Amino acid sequence: MIEPLSRTGHVLAVLAAVLLAALLGRRAARAARQPEVVGEILAGILVVPAVLLVAGADGLATVLPADVAGPLRTAGQVGLVLFLVGVAHELRHGGTAVLGARAVGWVTAGSFVPALLCGLLMAAWVLWVADDGVRGDAPAPALVLMVAIALSVTAVPVLARVLEDRGLTDSPAGRLAMAAAVVTDSAAWVLLVVAVGVSGGLLGSVALLVAGLVLLAVGRVALRAGGPTALAARHPRAAAVAVSGAALLAAFQFEHWGLTAVSGAFVVGLALPGGPWAAVVRPVAALGRLLVPVSFVVAGMGVANAPRGAVPWAAILVALALAVLGKVGGGYLGARLARQDRRTALTVGVLVNTRGLTEIVVLQAGYSAGLLSVRLFLALVVMALVTTAMTGPLLSLVERRGAAAPAPAR
């Protein structure tokens, strides 16, 4: 009995250390006037390399032995699953002010299509120019789709926080960027399911996607009934436990089918109605959000185990250049086609370039499914962090230029 108890204590101690590192990372990010998620991700990913640098391989094996790394990986996966329930629910029910269909359509197309094309360009670079360590072993079609998705994501939760902090929530640029991000992220998650399925065969991918849509339709019909909604209103805590269990069960089943666990969580989140269910989803997502930093530490284990001297600088630069071109340039073009003035269009482009936590979750899913090599995963993580960190300074620059301009040009 002593050894299991000792292992449990070790796991809990590591979890506490990870959560403390995430807290410190958030505070450091706030002090630097950056979104909290930037500090949180950096803290999580750098924990393992830092221990390895200070204590060496033997020290890392003592701090994070295999029988502790396993439960840690599970905790991180649980966190991602529960967090994605909240993200999917918010994508379906999150309100944005009524906007013109034409404007939303142009901005959505501008923030998604050019970014997707830039992702295809990067995938071509990975396949034909980059070395084998960046290329990895994933099937070419799945890799191409995965990289394209990675460059097209906009993080709705982080974007919402940026808009609130900047007082842009009700501005034309803020409303257009949020509406475009909701549509873009929804499409990105569907494409992620296809990408993971393609690695196991196109027919299987289509079948699993259809199965997911059927489950989604059945869940929505069942939960719209008065009985479940009334129970959720009267017993939100019990309903939250039930939703968590359903999300974890769906995640396990989707993974068993050959998809990622987060795909099952996304289906559960989309199936949940609004109204009283919002109070049910909130604690589920909050618990997931608390555990998500654990998954960053797991990612850091992969980074630490990468070959020394293998920092993919070329891949980082290519990813950054194409990511900014696709999102800032595409968002600006879409907003201009929607007849927005130049300052509003540029603000939209900067906002949709915010990737943050949603991007990291997408990359984690691709990495776990074997679609991304460690080096390509690292390059895309750096891209996500840098583009998110750019948002604040670029918005300040746009504001200063707008204040200096005599009048917005159309």
Which helices and strands occur, and which strands form pairs?
Layout: H1 2-31, H2 36-63, H3 66-93, H4 101-128, H5 132-135, H6 140-152, H7 156-166, H8 172-198, H9 202-223, H10 226-234, H11 236-256, H12 261-271, H13 277-304, H14 313-337, H15 342-352, H16 356-368, H17 374-404
Helix pairs in contact: 1-2, 1-3, 1-13, 2-13, 3-11, 3-12, 3-13, 4-6, 4-8, 4-14, 6-8, 7-8, 8-9, 8-15, 9-12, 10-11, 11-12, 11-13, 14-15, 14-17, 15-17, 16-17
GO biological process, one term: proton transmembrane transport
Keywords: Ion transport, Membrane, Transmembrane, Transmembrane helix, Transport
Protein name: Cation/H(+) antiporter
Q: What can you tell me about this protein's structure?
A:
By secondary structure, the chain is mostly helical. The protein is globular. The chain has one domain: Na+/H+ antiporter like fold (Up-down Bundle), CATH 1.20.1530. Helix 4 (101-128) crosses helix 8 and helix 11 (236-256) crosses helix 13 (277-304). The N and C termini lie far apart (74 Å). 83% of the residues lie in helices and 0% in strands. It has 17 helices and no strands.
List its salient traits:
410 residues; mainly alpha; Na+/H+ antiporter like fold; 17 helices; transport; CPA2_transporter; transmembrane; membrane; antiporter activity
Helices, by number, come to 17
The CATH class designation is Mainly Alpha
User: What would the principal axes of the Cα set say about the shape?
Assistant: globular
* N- to C-terminal distance: 74 Å
Specify the biggest β-sheet. Answer: none
Report Rg: 21 Å
Q: Note the beta-strand portion.
A: under 5%
